Amino acid sequence: MFLTIPTLLTCTRIVAIPLIVGVFYAPLDTPTRNLIATIMFIVFAATDWFDGYLARKLNQTSAFGAFLDPVADKFLVCAALLVLVHLQRTDVFVALIIIGREIAISALREWMAHLGASKSVAVHMIGKLKTMAQMVAIPFLLYDGVAFGVMDTGVWGQWLIWIAAVLTVWSMVYYLKKALPEIRARL
């Protein structure tokens, strides 16, 4: 079940990375680049919801899809954060917090799966809130302008990315606390 519609949609998030980065090297004016990159990020990020919905609806869930989905999400978010750091639209400290947490929690989940205790680090609401804050902050920061003539997306994006960073640390502590009893039981 490698070539199902949901898996192909998941793969588009990985393919999107060089496209979004490439927009910033295109011979376009900055507002046009920002708008194109923002739209691309939103469209490709939306495939995360859509591929899961289709996988369930079409009964095309697979272990490979379950593995690839969060990997594609993390690649897309990390690439966008690196672009934003390069463009000086977000602090490198924020990017390090978010990217470091993604690596640490991915490793923790892998380890807990190896121990047969993956349920102890199952996705929790705090992780979902962190993801939501990131997925709103990143397009705001990519756009970096005044939306609808009233909202400075750069300012809102900065607030949201810092909120995402706080939620990132909070969720990491939560997952580590949930895993600790399992880890202690195995030592």
From TrEMBL:
Domain of life assignment: Bacteria
InterPro entries attached to this UniProt entry: CDP-alcohol_PTase-I, CDP-OH_P_trans, CDP-OH_PTrfase_TM_dom, CDP_ALCOHOL_P_TRANSF_CS, Phosphatidylglycerol_P_synth
Subcellular location: Membrane
Principal localisation: membrane
Cellular component GO terms, alphabetical: membrane
Signal peptide: none
Any one Pfam family match given in the protein's UniProt record, by short name: CDP-OH_P_transf
Transmembrane segment boundaries: 7-28, 34-54, 66-87, 93-111, 156-176
Entry keyword set: Lipid biosynthesis, Lipid metabolism, Membrane, Phospholipid biosynthesis, Phospholipid metabolism, Transferase, Transmembrane, Transmembrane helix
Membrane topology field: Multi-pass membrane protein
Pathway involvement of the protein, from the record: Phospholipid metabolism; phosphatidylglycerol biosynthesis; phosphatidylglycerol from CDP-diacylglycerol: step 1/2
Catalytic activity annotation: a CDP-1,2-diacyl-sn-glycerol + sn-glycerol 3-phosphate = a 1,2-diacyl-sn-glycero-3-phospho-(1'-sn-glycero-3'-phosphate) + CMP + H(+)
Major enzyme class: transferase
Cross-referenced NCBIfam families: pgsA
PANTHER family per record: CDP-DIACYLGLYCEROL--GLYCEROL-3-PHOSPHATE 3-PHOSPHATIDYLTRANSFERASE 1, CHLOROPLASTIC, CDP-DIACYLGLYCEROL--GLYCEROL-3-PHOSPHATE 3-PHOSPHATIDYLTRANSFERASE-RELATED
Family designation: Belongs to the CDP-alcohol phosphatidyltransferase class-I family.
Protein name, per record: CDP-diacylglycerol--glycerol-3-phosphate 3-phosphatidyltransferase
Source species of the chain: Comamonas suwonensis
Lineage: Bacteria, Pseudomonadati, Pseudomonadota, Betaproteobacteria, Burkholderiales
Gene, per the UniProt record: pgsA
